[in-house]
Amino acid sequence: MGSIALIFARPQSLQSWANFLGIQGTVLAAIQYLPQIWTTFKIKRVYSLSIPMMCIQTPGSFVWAASLAARLGPKGWSAWGIYCVTGCLQGTLLGMGVVYEWRHKRQEKAELEARIDAVNRGEVERENVDENVDVNANEQTPLIGNSGR
Question: pTM of whole model > 0.90?
Fold first, then answer.
């Protein structure tokens, strides 16, 4: 409602008003990402976030910002700046997610290898090992196929 009133009352102030709204939008967008970034940092896992989706969304923010910047020019910074900020925040979340998931997978693999080695050395009885773990598996073992059970 304030924008409509400003159009008629003070049209010369529209750019300042647009900049003000752009800054407000940028602050709110940043606030939107901060809890997710903090949670991801704190638990060191991504869980429900889709890394492939973030791989598409992150560069998409910058492409959209570039598109707006090409059309609006420097005076329209408050319109395209928000997409630059959110792209950086999405990129931060994506980078954290990739690193944490990579570390988690590496840790899981090391733990599995340690359990298999313990079985092979006879330190752990075979029946005490998870029945879904193939103790004879190696890097060439297919993930899908007849496991011989």
Answer: no
